[in-house]
## 1
Amino acid sequence: MDDLDDLYQEIILSHNKRPRNEGPLDPCDCQAEGYNPLCGDKIRVYVRAPGGCDGLIEAVSFTGEGCAISRASASIMTDAVKNRPRAEVDARIAEALHLLTSRDEPAGDLMTLGDLAALAGVRKFPPRVKCATLAWHTLESALKGEGSASTERE
Amino acid sequence: MAGQSASVDPRIGVESALFGIESQLFGIERRLIGLERRLIGMESRLFGMESRLIGMESGLFGMESRLIGMESRLIGMESGLIGMERRLIGMESGLIGMESGLSDMESGLFGMESGLFGMERRLIAVDGRLIEVPWQWLRGGGRLMLATRAPGQIAPEAPLRSPEDGLGSYPFPVSDDPIRADFPILSRTVGAGAGKPLAYLDNAATAQKPRSVIDAVTRFYEHENANIHRGVHYLSMHATDAYDGARERIARAIGAAHPAEVIFVRGTTEAINLVASSLGQRFEAGDEIVLTGMEHHANLVPWQLLAERRGLTLRFAAVTDSGEIDLDDFRSQFTARTRLAAFTQVSNALGTINPVAEMMAIARERGAYVLIDGAQGAAHGPVDVGALGADFYAFSGHKVVGPDGIGVLWGRRALLDSMPPYQGGGDMIERVTLTGSTFRSSPERFEAGTPNISGAIGLGAAFDYLARIGWETIEARERDLLDYATARLTEIEGLRILGPASTAAKVSVISFVMDSAHPHDIGTILDTEGVAIRAGHHCAQPLMERFRIAGTARASIAFYNNRDDIDRLIAGLHKVKRFFG
Ligand SMILES: Cc1ncc(COP(=O)(O)O)c(C=O)c1O
């Protein structure tokens, strides 16, 4: 019960219901489609970086159907990386993937992670971890110009 | 008292009248007691018979183990005693005969037991009616057991239902259900801490195993393990007999014309790959294969691979909005180039029962080979490959309460013998030289290498078990639960069931979506309540795309489930609504 409340915190539920930055970006400088073959969920991530995807990432958005965890994670991600230089975005992606997949307690102060910290509850539900990482892997692919990502191709 | 009454007192008249009434009431009471006693008597006589039978059974078991002891002493003696050993083998087969006699007796017992259940229910009905007798009638007769019981104390937990409701409404708790007691895993809990009792509703993914199947596999490894068809030694011959015996039993159970028509494979997936690889060598560029839009990936991907290798065209029959095959569209997919049609008997994602006879007729008219994917069909009803009339029928052991890693490809013998081998290796060859080999006929031709011997024996035991329970009972229980679950799910607002609207057109598989929650979230929340369902695309992505969804939540019911499992599913879904509503 506690674990379930951890997983479906208010923050997650509200991001799921009213996601930030849902919908395509136009113009868009790079994008990628992410796919979780285990459940069939698909997500598309759009990036606006007029100076190129190696420079300042101005905005990120997403489209696609998914469970509460994958939608909340995507929504939180778009807020967490916008208006940051590429290097910082890469660091945030690494931080998020570490938070979601490592067995250790989250390092550092959960407060500095902001809404990201709310995703930590997923670690108690191993089958759901990939729902949470999908958006981040997809953003990674978009920035690298790969076009597509899959949770089963890491 | 009577002798003392010298003068006539009018009150005495009244008193004796009251006495009369009282003794009449006593009379009624006695008759009721008599009735109850007779029923109890019958019950205990049946119990007596049952325990005598059990006694006989354990006596026989004793004899069997003594025989095994003798046998091992004999093996320790000289080789000149082979004759004696032969006689022992004879005795052993006698024992096996006795054993099967015993299992007949056992099934007789089963019948008696269910008769007993019926009586018990009738008793409870009588009891219930007794309780309705005005209390003052019984007051004062404190000796009367029935009167001292509060109403409801002995009443069943669920209201009694009419007999045509079937066994599913049997109003007793889990442990009293002899079928549930056969499945050890059903008594465990799942989840963190003390956990929740398991409500296993993922039977379409894999079925649970009865004790008799688990024991058959264990017994093989403890007493019989050896490789087959290879050793001249005792154990090898014994293991070979057990393996071939399982094949014969399964062949009989599915209506095969000959045991050689039953090829042991890893499961449905391997069975279909076998046909695609072997029969597929006959197909030429431009040839066509007809499939449907509701196939499991196991009955799609092997054909895609073959089509790519040989330049074939795959054509797909459309699925209607109610999740059924559009027969006209199916017919229209056949052309002069159609070589084979492959379709599922029952949809694993929606539960739809396909009109296999009509589909067979259409394919036959066009002279195409037919493969039926029986992975789900074989789990919900008796299989009769003769009546189905296809060329191939494939199913998996693990879905029919057997072990995993074993399954069956049934095929027509002449056709199988005309097909090239699937894999090469030991046991499938006739003669091998450095430049080439010749091959044995079916089934060995298609069983290269050491097969899953314990799995085959376990699958034989699974078919024995299903026969003992009886398909009528299995189907009645599943149907009761399907109707009950469908009715209860329909009451939930914002929940939509996919597939045929009528439960008569489907097996006990219920695929649904909810407005408020994604299937994955439903699955996780139900899991924390001990309710196991499947969430996702069910290895039928084209079908999901057809319905423009990523996946569904699927509750799949087996005959060993009960209404409590369904009630817990419903309660879990209300919890989902509390989170996401
Ligand atoms: C209709 C259908 N076909 C084929 C399969 C594949 O069976 P297996 O994985 O046992 O080979 C399944 C099992 O999920 C199924 O439901």
## 2
Amino acid sequence: MAKTITEINEKIKKGQAVVVTAEEIVDIVEEKGVKRAAQEVDVVTTGTFGPMCSSGIYINIGHAKPRIKLGGGKCYLNEVPAYCGFAAVDIYLGCTHLSDDDPRNKVYPGEFKYGGGHVIEEFVAGKDIRLTAIAYGTDCYPRRKLETWINIKDVNEAVLFNPRNVYQNYNVAVNLSDKLIYTYMGVLKPNLGNANYCGAGQLSPLLNDPLYKTIGIGTKIFLGGGVGYVAWQGTQHNPTAKRKDNGVPCVPAGTLAVIGDLKQMRPEWLVGTSFQGYGATLTVGVGIPIPILDEEIVRYSAVKDEEIFAPIVDYGKQYPYSEKPQVELGEVSYAQLKTGKIKLHGKEIPTAPLSSYPKAIEIAETLKDWIKSGRFLLTEAVASLPGPESGLTFKFLKERPIE
Amino acid sequence: MISKRIVLRFPNRLIDQPIVCKLVKDYDLEFNILKAYIAQREEGLLVLELKGQDEEYNKGIDYLTRIGVRIQLLSQDIVRNNAKCTHCGICISVCPTGALVIDSITRKVHFYDNKCIACELCIPACPPRAMEVHF
Ligand code: SF4
Ligand code: SF4
């Protein structure tokens, strides 16, 4: 018999909900079967903790005296430029931004020691951040210069708003060229020297609800150690990507835009990180609860690493230069990736992950505790994410030369 | 008498030179190769135990420095800042000695400092900069 989210929430309030992680549900379904698992389990929690470059925060710093209009001016947080194309004192800081004098890749491979992601981590940790700004001055906002310390506890709003997080599946990166390369997938040694993958596999949120039956706009989630919401589908959301019979995409597919109050988040779950030769970013912790409404949903949530496949992509030539999705190099399961080696072109290649599985477990466990203790109720999605039937795809840029 | 474990980093142009032979012949030093790699792109890496008379030892080290070999004492400590490590696992593919490995059950990354040769490859490769050099 199907359940509703309202019924599950009633159980959560009474402290009676049965909540398990996406790892634990695998064994439960194997032992008890889909039918009993669907009856007995109310919520499955998922988690992921990986670098997510489309992340950032917006802050309203409060009005200065005399007033200053940052909109149209320039503004820096610990030397890292923030966007100020909004109203007077609203600014946005993206996690990949770098200070103007960062050497970037001039000394190759660049270190990217401090970028927007690092500022975000320090800001969330409650450290004072140096804000410097220049403005053009108006009659109502006469001030032209501002230099001040700001602190998360003093600003009006501080909101984490990430246009693309939680990729549903991702590439396995290899390097077919004869040069060592530095990528967002880590250091890739020449001639298939290593293979890096990114994703929590069976714990990953969107792999446990592959057709977005429960996760939608408005879904309440664990975000950066606090509570957040799914705001929209993420950029590059590609629901029509190739899928297996179990509905699980075998290439990068869906994504989520997420939002939440930064003031209640924790620096352990929003970590500024540096990718050698590539750039600075933010490693974000996200966990999503899946209400077990019926047998179909429990079946999806019981997906295991053996049943999730990722495409192997050459970052030496194919990824940077070609539009065609990689097919020739084949695909590999997360179970295989986690053994520490894969076989390709007759060669055994060591694998390494980019996203932390132990932290993904910790997130799923934390969310489980929150729900069990009645602190975290589930929400009904207010609108669905575009699914495979939407026909939505991911496009390359059509360049049109400017005469 | 001095006996030290050191890490030598060779630029590409020196990789095929008989440098170690010269240490033996000209400075009367004894050596024991602990590890050897062509580590990254343009660099060779040799971990040696080097033994000899104090004066000769220092001259030998001078010679190495002069020709462009970078030298590091193995006692230089690489330490993992456990509060910063997220156990992502990305370092295991850059560590040449298997000092950083993933536990197949917990999926946590172990750091075996007895296997570490202080090559420092993991330092810039670790995204949260959890691997640190302590002098
Ligand atoms: S790369 Fe750094 S953070 Fe990741 S497991 Fe290794 S030491 Fe820990
Ligand atoms: S310095 Fe880092 S990469 Fe080098 S051996 Fe030690 S742990 Fe491994």
## 3
Amino acid sequence: MSAPYFTLPEFKYVKPGSLEEALEILDEHGEEAKIMNGGIGVVAFLKERLMEAEYIVDIKGIPELKKIEYIPGKGLYVGATTTVNELIEFLEKSPEVREKYRALYEASTHLADAILRNRATIVGDILEGLPYMDAPGPALIFEAEMHAVSKSGERWVPVDGIVMGPMMTQLQPNEIVTEIIFKEPPEGARSGYVKFASRTEYGIVNVAALVAHPNDPGKRVVKIAYTGATALPYRAREAEELFKKPEPFGKLVEEAVKVIQDNVEVLEDPYASADFRKYLMGILTTQLLVKLARGEW
Amino acid sequence: MAGRMITLRLNGQERRVEVEDNETLLYVLRYKLKEMSVKSACWKGECGLCTVLMDGKPVKSCMVLAVEADGSDIVTATGLVKDGELSPIQKAFVEHGALQCGFCTPAFVVAAHHFLQKNPNPTREQVKEFLSGLICRCTGYAQIIDAIMDAAKYYRGEQKASP
Amino acid sequence: MSKQAFKVLGKPVPPPDSYEKVTGTAPYTFDMELPGMLYAKLVTSTEPHARIKSIDYSKALQVPGVRIVATGRDFPVRIGIYVGDRDMLAIEKALWVGHPVAAVVAESIKAAEKAIDLVEVEYDPLPPVFDVEEALKPDAPLLHPDIANYKISPAFKPVPGTNIANQFRMIKGEGEAGFDKADLVIEKTFKMPFLHHAYMETWNTIAHYKVTGDIEIWTSSQSPYAPRYLMAMSLGVPVGKIKMRIPYVGGGFGGKAGVLIEPLVAMLSKKAGYKPVKLVMSRAEQMRSMPVIAGYKAYAKIGFSKDGKIVAYKVRFLFDTGAFADYTVNVARTAGYACTGVYDMPNVYCESLAIYTNKVPTTAIRGFGYPENHWVLERLMDMAARELRMDPVKIRSINLLRPGDPTSTTGYGSPLRADAGDIQGVLKTSAELIEWDKEPEQPKEPWKIRAKGIAMSLKGPSQPPNAVDAAIVKFNEDASVDILVATGNYGQGTVNALRMIVAEAFDLPLDKVHITWMNSTEWMPYTWQTVGSRSTFTVGQALLRAVEDAKRQIFDIASAVLKVPADQLELADGKVYVKGEPWMSIPLTEIVNGYTFPNGQVLGGPIIGRGIHSPGILSYLDPDTGQALPINPETGHSEPGHATVFYTFGSTAVEVELDLLTGDIKVLKATQVYDIGRVINPLTAKGQAIGGLIMGMSRALYEELIFDDSGGVANPNFSFYYVARAKDIPDDIRIKFLETPQADGPFGARGFSENVMIAVIPAIANAIERATGVSITELPMTHERVWRAIKEQRPDLIEKALKAFQEWKNASQG
Ligand SMILES: Cc1cc2nc3c(=O)[nH]c(=O)nc-3n(C[C@H](O)[C@H](O)[C@H](O)COP(=O)(O)OP(=O)(O)OC[C@H]3O[C@@H](n4cnc5c(N)ncnc54)[C@H](O)[C@@H]3O)c2cc1C
């Protein structure tokens, strides 16, 4: 993040008006074409000369990519080009949906800033793949999947595992994500999000968690995911499993934290050591889970 | 690289301009349309000094391609002046001492204008949260927040713009 | 000067340029373009220390639109305000990752940016040194083996054959031997990181080298004269040929003092065929390649008697100047001579070194050595208070300097004048404002603590003893006044304050006093520099003398016309009156261009007043002992000289909340108290106090330039070099000014816009010290640093917090 340039490298800009047209272009140009959504990540990477493209394919002209729809029992569908602010506005207007997806709502209001959120998208934020993004955590705890379409077909790709690194994903160069679904959370679930930033714009530890029926081991569900602390978004599945045990919630939180701290491989950088990140994961996760369980979040 | 013509409304005036695909909106506003009220201090989305209203919403113009602005309506701080009169938000900035070197001021003013139009009854917390995508190194923000809280009355319609 | 009725002073007057600023129509150099202007861009070093073997720019020249490429060979000049060590483009050796080694000039910025990628530089690496203590070792690689041949100003002493750019020493009383009398001795090591000023407008300059040999410059600089002089010296151009023009400036904070890139751009303009050239720094270039703020390590030791009196103080500052020391030698020297802060100390030993390393160079900064030395001293005061079980306010109070008492002296041995300010009053008011004696209300989470902290500060302008200023007032036909001063206007409110001073002195309404935005050596009279919080005080005095001068001319004419002696005349409301006979008057409009009698005969001509400020009382410090050299030796009235023309006293107090679990510090409340002699404009004074508070808080909690393994700045952006945003500021900010006038200040005023940042930083750490007994000595106070400090020094506190956290957690078990 230290390139000196004001200008962008050369590329051709195309703005297809339909999905078919867009897929055609991608198919024809392969790796030479890069999808641009809100463009925050794409323009930043171009400016840093961390990305090259013959073609920049702006997908904001494709009508069906812009949508927000909540289908009870199935989940919340967010179009690929729906901006973070549009999502926030939708959730603020529909309090029941917002309560179901509290972690997503909170992460969205912490993502970048109020001005960038007029362009930034949830799908773009996840696919940009930097370690400290805010959208992937909630996506993991809501078992989100992206709908990827190409000329040769379509598929639903789980967000868990989709990102391999900065601007690197499991998607094919000719695939366009049209929407993302945040699945219906378990009945009775509450969720929340903590962003812990330390002299950076980004979090050094971000925790997304969901808790349902904390005190009823038979029905209890807990989901926990992290960004900021790890190179890639991290879903703490082993820890989540623990909560199936018929033991008091508080005790399991302690065990879960230990399992997470033992298993996770965390980042170490000038903003926080690995030790401190691990320790913070413990504190923040405990706070979030306990407050969610108590209905205090 | 061949340029292409785009048309946009800049502060109410229709402007046609030839742009290249890899030019940002910031670049075209400043160097082709000579709209120098749009500043920049980082060129990568951090400082927010290149903020303009694009179709009614604030965007950081260094992160927008100029071609994307084809057909759009752009408003800058200069555009808030009506018939030689400062807008209420601009007056509030002056009266509250909400500026020092002034380099960030056009961005704060135009962003605050949008914010108050949407939310004429803000809390201090909401103002602070909203402003956090913009950097001002001189003022320490307090007087900016005061100015915005004070100007809100005009947006609520409690007070007429020109006394 | 008790409560006076002022017509203009003391009113919250927005600076007139506010109107241009809110509409975005105020022109900065950043916005300026000249006909035929070309654009420059720098190529920078990828090596921390290396001999430059070759630079091949043939491919760069092929890029359409590229005019020239220049390297250090083209202008092998060194420049610098105090130590002339800075090259414009690397001369033979690259000294840090980011060092400009070549510059491309092209018809468009796009072409220039394309071309820099095609310049191929071959390096022969030399061993680098990144740490000040390593750099002091006898076998350390030398950055400036030729320093003996550089231009050095009188007060500075580089040590050839070492990496020491300047060495300052000060011994007062018995020096170190004073510790013999101490009952309590505290020894600590302190650190401050490299910082970035983060002015919003990056350095940028347009230069037009003309075929006539005249050089026209438009630049984002704090002041026109000192940089022009340096530029002329280094380029070997007659100084009068250079016209330095400064339009609106987007912030400075010391980072635009001295000479910036003006000589480089001028030479590029010449080489490009006498075309105007513009060079604008990107933020990354600004933070990696252009001067930033020096970090330091300081070894400090302080001794107290049982009753809390300071008996001895020893401090050794090792300032890391990076590759060029330029201005930093004086920051380091100032940190040294003012190391005793607001306290009276009998015995002092201080050493302050400015040391070269292979890192980004450094320069002046708001506060200029005072935030640096106060971070050490004001922290030690609280550590001592804790050890001695004394109240931090009390221990300060009994050690404060006593203005007017010749036995109470600064570290360099000069007493303070009796009207220097109410130092005890500042401390007392500060304690009152923060409600020092009231325990803060504790939050309900037992792992969080709220606490109050306090610190004091003093600040005076660090200027050479012979820094002088001039001012001119002239009249327009409507008897309105134009003020001509070369004082930089980058948002501090100074020029507006000067306007208010002139309006008051002339008894004219404010709208009859004009200032202009374009500062230039062509029409503004000499001012040394706009730095050091000095201009209201020094240029203000020059202006008052200019007003007197103009009035004398006006009264001379009026006296002849009204046929009364000049001393019976007074000026008010735009008229000259005979005292006590207000019906006998002449409108000023009939005098300002000479008085015309009914017969057409004219008396006198245009009225132009001039005034100067000459410090007089300042002297150099003795090179061996750091004690002020006596002034007026030849008059027989010899007395110690002074290092500053005034000192302003201040205090910051805060209430913070500390989360023991995460190391999070939140400033909830902050108070600022300064004795500024006279509040000229409460609106902009408040603005300075708040701005400084938040800048101080930002430095205390967030800011640090981080270096990678090759010594390059790793976070040259605002995502990772975080500066305070709106969401970080406390809601409860209380500001109070005391007004103990200083006789020679304009209407009693002293400057204070750097002071406002100094005590903030230790006050925050002092609050933590007070609440937890944990001594934080390194900045910034990041979460992890604070958490580690608590863990190391008070593991019991973390244990207790974790236990409380555990209990809170278990309370939920159902
Ligand atoms: C100053 C600053 C601060 C920031 N702070 C934060 C922060 O605090 N938290 C945070 O999470 N983020 C932060 N960001 C990052 C920002 O939020 C992301 O860059 C943004 O959300 C990306 O979304 P976008 O729509 O702009 O994606 P784009 O930049 O358009 O795309 C990003 C990537 O996703 C791919 N892509 C996008 N859409 C699709 C699609 N439909 N199909 C296939 N591929 C696609 C693109 O090809 C590209 O590789 C910050 C950015 C900046 C500049």
